[in-house]
Amino acid sequence: MTTPSESKAPATQPVPARPGRKLGPIADTVGSSHRAWLEHAREKYLASGLTLSELGLRVPLAKSKLSELLRGLGLYPRWEVIGRLSEVLGMQIIPLYRLWRQAALDARKSPEWVQRCSDKSALTAPQPNPPVAHEPFRRTVEGGYRRYAQAFLADAPCEAAVDDTFDILWLSWNSALASPDIRRYAWRILRATVLAKTPHLDGWPELVPAAFDTVAVRRPTRSSDPTEQLAESLELFRAIGRLPANLQDVMVLRHLCGNTVEETSALLGVPPPMVRSDERHARRIIFPPPESEGPIE
What we know:
Number of strands: 2
Order of helices and strands: HHHHHHHHHHEEHHHHH
Largest sheet: 2 strands, antiparallel
CATH class of the largest domain: Mainly Alpha
Strand content: under 5%
Helix content: 55-70%
Shape: elongated
Number of domains: 2
């Protein structure tokens, strides 16, 4: 669902198959911020109809190096290359640069290295503002996004995840407008960005380290013993972390962040009855009812 003031983006036409070898997948070692801008660059490249050879003439970069860049292989690329790539492929330079910078820092590049790479860029020229509806949307949901991220991440990674989310949303705004509901589209970006930065244990996200700053630990529990209260909280956090994605999000928003059903519905972009249904389902998984002892004879 889009608001009345938001027009749908035009449908994209299929791009004819290009000659040459198919572009390989993104490397598994690529971090979340790097992957965010890289996926967008790959989408723009594939939609452009250019071959790697043709793109290499415009960037300029050798075909083999372009292939590595678009797969996240080799050394992390300097901004001069990515800035030129953004001009050729028509990417928004400001959110692209911020994601590139965050990914560089995540890759342990020094702030001095980042600055040296940016000195000769076009960033000093006047830059376009975000789409008209982007900032009002951000103001509406940013607080809820931050509380959700805080259930998984410490302060600095939390802020980075939220900022990355809105930069990715800016880069893909036309796709967001074309989606059935901008809120659901944006939430998928937030969830993927947060979980990519979240430590995992046995394949499951760990809520325990960050979740102790949430409202759940300030609520009364079944026990008055502090040790038992701690054990209950640990058990709850681990159980929520092992729920399916939709149930997990509802439980985090409702019980760790303290959102109402209506607030949770607005953030997720789903109807309130679905929030209530997912919450009931999650509760049955976390707190299964006792087994029936059968009829009394």
